[in-house]
Amino acid sequence: MSPPPTLDPDTSDQLQHLPPASPGPSGGSLLNILRVLVPGGKVLLLEHGRSSWGWWNRSLDEGAQRHRSKWGCWWNRDILAIVHQAGLVVEYVSRWHFGTSYIIVASPARATHRDLAIP
């Protein structure tokens, strides 16, 4: 596994806990991050979601409602699909814990990311 690409030290950093797996429109928090991202900025995500193993996904799906009720988030969302739907291009991804934990470095797919509407 290679390390994530180096982030530009001349940009300001912002850390928020706005998981795509939380309630509400999928990726809504990502659209807000894109809206305020500096030109040339990158998004670093540490997320949990669907596994890369089908048998583990069946277990996640069976317990998803119970997990949501107890912890407030969906643990079986397709994180990479949410990231792509939000208009991000994945530059780096690393997965572990049966593929359910993700580190993602992404950048906006469009130059006009500040014009995105937030649902």
Automatic annotation (TrEMBL):
SUPFAM superfamilies named among the record's database cross-references: S-adenosyl-L-methionine-dependent methyltransferases (SSF53335)
Natural source organism: Haematococcus lacustris (Green alga)
Protein name (Swiss-Prot/TrEMBL): S-adenosyl-L-methionine-dependent methyltransferase
Cross-referenced PANTHER family: METHYLTRANSFERASE, METHYLTRANSFERASE DOMAIN-CONTAINING PROTEIN
Annotated stretches, region: Disordered: 1-26
Stored Gene3D superfamilies: Vaccinia Virus protein VP39
GO molecular function, one term: methyltransferase activity
Coiled coil residues, start to end: none
